[in-house]
Design goal:
The complex is a heterodimer.
Chain A (H helix, E strand, L loop, with lengths): L13 E10 L2 E11 L4 E5 L6 H9 L6 E5 L11 E4 L13 H7 L13 H13 L15 H14 L4 E5 L7 H16 L3 E5 L3 H7 L2 E6 L1 E6 L1 H4 L2 H8 L3 E6 L2 E6 L14
Parallel strand pairs in A: 3-7, 3-8, 5-6, 6-7
Antiparallel strand pairs in A: 1-2, 1-4, 8-9, 10-11
Helix pairs in contact in A: 2-4, 3-4, 4-5
Chain B lengths: L1 H9 L2 H26 L3 H10 L1 H10 L7 H21 L5 H20 L5 H10 L7 H20 L1 H9 L1 H6 L4 H23 L4 H13 L5 H26 L3 H19 L5 H7 L1
Classes of the chains: A alpha/beta, B mainly alpha.
Chain lengths: ~270, ~280
């Protein structure tokens, strides 16, 4: 009932080839091609409506592209259960009657066969995942009572329980205070040790430059992809953001601040 | 005295059957209703209940007034309408609730038109609209038990799938759960529940059986299994209290059950520890 395909280790974990999506008569994404290596941490940046959430949903196989392909270890995403999509906190019903352990256990739904119940091994993985994200003592807490940073880490624990090898995180840092952001970014470093490949959509170009191996700058199409210093150059940024960007002089040279905020609705219209 | 007061109604076989039917319908509606509440499908449930009226009316006219075959007509119409509404609301340019509204009112009107061709129009219509829990036969009680049991077993078997799908449909898709099949299965379960409940509560008050006990339970717990159990318990309690009220105060049984459940909801809404209106006002 629930198909799983085998991984070909000679293929990149993610290979996106000429990916396009036409939605409501306009191109949401056009001609996106890139590939990632195992364990990479990549920040995806671009203005509101650039298609970051849409790109993640295409990679996860939740949406089907108009043309082009996504390959995960050499085959299409729809056979894989190793891809985790971590939603924006604003997309979640926090009053849903579940506790932290319930949500993390949902990550096991694919590995459990139909009509079976979680066993010892599943609970072990859930507890281990909760310890990794430092929520070990909150497993019985109702999810609405968690802080923003804890909510975000709970979803990472769910992805770990899923045994995800590719995690797609949609604005995980948005709305978090500075210590929570720090905690989350150091957690991302620990994921790298576990050879988990991570793509993070973010609005904070400075954090993107500081904490990520490569940056993918998009606005419907790829504007630039590479090391932070190659991507965050004034001409590429202006190309992506147009006038919607403030350039600030900082310690590391020119810093760019995206002045759009994350609460915009247009990026999420493909959610259903 | 109290014993006599409690025992007197149950000495009648029709009251025994009525109580069994009210409890059975209450439990099945409450458990399915948990998902109706959590997924925001109250309007869909109300519409679906009304949409089966033309099917039931047609069965009534075709069978010449026999009551026992109506269950099958209700079941067929409910499943057809559930999948139909599901398909229409996924594939139209108008909003889902608008599409449901158009279909539901049209089908309901068709049902009333069909029943109005029968001679005993007013009596028959009121039975379909408001149910007739005291007129339940042994045979239909068994049928309700079997189909209600099937619904509960299915909800239990697909617990993790329905939970994952309801909390986070995108997760369900990335875990490659058969999202479309599960969504349709849930619609069919709601349809079967409505067919099972039709004779007891009627189409007009059906949504209360689906939504009210589950909504009350939602205010009292943070866990889904507890919410289901509490909703079932509250529905059972409302069914029993409602039937006694109906017996001693001579009010319509379906209305008495629904009113009992509604009063409990408002008491909990006002006073529930930690979340009740009075509680939160008091703390400000």
């Amino acid at each position: 009932m629930y198909p799983h395909v085998h991984h070909r280790q000679d293929q990149p974990i993610l290979d996106v080839h000429k990916l396009s999506l036409r939605y409501d008569g306009h191109m949401a994404l056009e001609g996106i091609s890139f590939h990632l290596h195992v364990g990479e941490r990549v920040a995806v940046v671009g203005p509101n409506g650039a298609g970051k959430s849409t790109l993640f949903k295409l990679i996860a196989g939740v949406l089907a592209p108009t043309s082009g392909q996504v390959s995960v270890y050499g085959s299409g995403p729809r056979g894989h259960v190793c891809i985790a999509f971590i939603p924006q906190r604003s997309q979640v019903d926090w009053r849903f009657p579940v506790n932290v352990a319930d949500v993390v256990m949902m990550g096991r739904s694919a590995k459990l066969r139909p009509l079976t119940w979680p066993g010892k091994h599943d609970w072990q993985l859930v507890r281990e995942a909760l310890r990794t994200v430092e929520l070990g003592d909150l497993e019985k807490r109702q999810i609405g009572q968690l802080s923003g940073g804890q909510q975000q880490r709970m979803f990472i624990a769910r992805a770990l329980a899923q045994e995800a090898e590719l995690m797609l995180m949609d604005e995980p840092l948005a709305g978090l205070d500075a210590p929570s952001q720090e905690g989350l970014l150091s957690l991302l470093a620990r994921l790298q040790e576990k050879r988990v490949t991570v793509m993070v959509a973010t609005h904070d170009l400075q954090q993107a430059a500081q904490y990520f191996d490569r940056i993918l700058l998009i606005n419907q199409r790829i504007i630039a992809f590479g090391m932070p210093e190659q991507v965050l150059k004034p001409q590429t940024l202006v190309q992506a953001y147009g006038g919607r960007l403030r350039l600030v002089d900082g310690e590391m040279g020119m810093l760019a601040m995206d002045d759009t905020c994350c609460e915009g609705g247009e990026e999420h219209e493909h959610a259903h | 005295m109290l014993i006599d007061w409690l025992a007197e109604p149950i000495s009648y076989p029709f009251m025994q059957r009525g109580l069994a039917a009210a409890i059975l319908v209450g439990v099945v509606c409450a458990v399915v209703g948990t998902y109706v509440v959590l997924r925001g499908m109250a309007f869909f449930g109300d519409a679906l209940a009304h949409t089966i009226l033309p099917g039931v009316a047609l069965g009534y006219l075709v069978s010449g007034g026999a009551r026992d075959v109506l269950f099958w007509w209700a079941l067929g119409t409910a499943i057809f309408a559930a999948l139909g509404i599901g398909a229409v609301s996924r594939n139209t340019r108008i909003k889902e609730d608008t599409a449901i509204g158009v279909i539901f009112a049209g089908m309901f009107a068709l049902g009333i038109a069909l029943i109005s061709t029968a001679r005993s129009y007013a009596v028959d219509l009121s039975h379909f609209l408001f149910g007739d829990v005291l007129g339940v036969s042994n045979q239909s009680l068994w049928r309700m038990a079997i189909f209600g049991g099937l619904v509960l077993v299915t909800i239990f078997m697909f617990y993790k799938e329905f939970l994952t799908l309801s909390f986070d449909p995108v997760l369900a898709a990335t875990l490659r759960l058969p999202v479309g099949v599960l969504n349709n299965l849930l619609l069919v379960l709601i349809a079967v529940t409505i067919a099972v409940s039709m004779q007891t509560v009627g189409v007009a008050l059906m949504v209360a059986m689906l939504v009210t006990p589950a909504a009350t339970a939602y205010l009292l717990t943070y866990r889904l299994p507890v919410m289901m159990a509490l909703a079932a318990g509250l529905a059972t309690f409302s069914g029993v209290v409602g039937l006694y009220l109906s017996y001693y105060l001579s009010i319509a049984s379906g209305a008495a059950i629904v009113l009992t459940a509604t009063v409990i909801f408002f008491v909990v809404f006002l006073f529930s520890p930690g979340r009740g209106l009075v509680w939160s006002k008091g703390r400000v």
